[in-house]
């Protein structure tokens, strides 16, 4: 018995469960256990590659219907979806907690953001693509800018925020007039299904919203489909580059990538240490460090290094790690998402040792009441930035932070710019001039002032530079990648001018 039931792929307005017996039975079945309790089987999801064609055909049909609706009609459907999500908000949060291992309080925050995102999309994002008229742009001529939908759009979701991040891309695509195909992470099939059930209950026209469960091969086949015009991916740099490899010959596709980070916080000598301590505890270890905006490196002024690291270490030892739902004490951290994540985390711990980076708090696998993928947070100290260090350059995606001392703010900025990533950075100081210098000189999509690298606003752009993205930021500005701009010149009178005004005619 499994805790949850997978209903299958959603297309043509219905869920379709691939056959697991008989002549049409599929061979590939994804099985998922709870990362916080490996004895609990969550679900089994059969993968049918034949459904790729059916899902695409459904999305093509849905686009033809959806694009013809008025903006108000599309907005009304989104509000109906919002109402359905609100009814099932608690259920969605619990599913996220069981599938990802995130503590329930953290998962509830994500579920609430799914509800709130509808209003942000309508009120804040939609105005960015409102059609514009420029009067008298030429003699007797008005100009128009018309924002038009791309077509069927593919959203490939991540496991760490399985609902929130995909939901933002889905809503922006839909409100702009596109149909969507949602391919969630194979680790979080059920929470994705709950979202699609809400779209179904909201009565969206047939084919507008589609879901396909599966592995990387499903994504690869969808990416090669000519009819898919928009591609949105949230995940690792490595997978992002594979997506570009598959799609770069198809100039009709707009590809929006939100990738990883190796995020630096600068802790200056005049910072309020108590405030910075709380902010860093969250940014380093929330969601067990499985956030693309998690703080990985703290460039710390040498004058406060020993004092602050000692305080931070003491506080890190107080972190409660437990089952996200069935806990004895409410945890700050749950488990990592799967055994592969644990293996990678422990591999990085050994790598730091081999590279001579000082271990202040050891990251290790933990035995809890329920057997799961639990690890302890880890803290390291590097004497200086080492450009040859694999450990310092890599996105660990686990609860780890490395402190690196500096003497001048220029040195701190160089540390922040040293990695191949450029997603998020933060600076703690009382000096506005230092913050201004960081904004000007740090190559990053986000730079925060006296606030940690995690916890972005939906009403601002969210995305990175370098290997953290491809200049199509998410959140508020996702909608910019859901449309293309058409120009129109409108002549106000069709009365012909004097034919003699045309030069070069033999009249």
Fold blueprint:
Layout: E1 9-11, E2 14-16, E3 28-34, E4 37-47, H1 51-66, H2 71-87, H3 89-100, H4 104-125, E5 132-138, E6 141-149, E7 153-156, H5 164-175, E8 180-183, H6 189-201, E9 209-211, H7 216-223, E10 230-234, H8 237-247, E11 254-258, E12 263-267, H9 273-285, E13 295-301, H10 305-316, H11 339-354, E14 358-361, E15 378-381, H12 390-393, E16 400-406, H13 409-416, E17 421-422, E18 424-428, H14 432-441, E19 446-449, E20 461-462, E21 465-466, E22 474-475, E23 483-491
Parallel strand pairs: 7-8, 7-10, 8-9, 10-11, 12-13, 12-18, 13-16, 15-16, 18-19
Antiparallel strand pairs: 1-2, 3-4, 5-6, 6-23, 14-15, 17-21, 20-22
Helix pairs in contact: 2-4, 2-6, 3-4, 3-6, 4-5, 9-10
Characterization of this structure:
This protein is α/β, with parallel strands linked by helices and 507 residues long. The protein folds into 2 domains: 9-259 and 469-488, Aldehyde Dehydrogenase, Chain A, domain 1 (3-Layer(aba) Sandwich); 263-458, Aldehyde Dehydrogenase, Chain A, domain 2 (3-Layer(aba) Sandwich), CATH 3.40.309. Helix content is 34%, strand content 22%. It contains 14 helices and 23 strands. The strands form 7 sheets. The chain has a 7-stranded mixed beta sheet with strand order 14-15-16-13-12-18-19, with helices on both faces. Strands 9-8-7-10-11 form a 5-stranded parallel beta sheet, with helices on both faces. Helix 9 links the parallel strand 12 and strand 13 (295-301). Helix 2 packs across helix 6 (189-201) and helix 3 packs antiparallel against helix 6. The radius of gyration is 25 Å and the shape is globular. The mean pLDDT is 97. Keywords: Oxidoreductase.
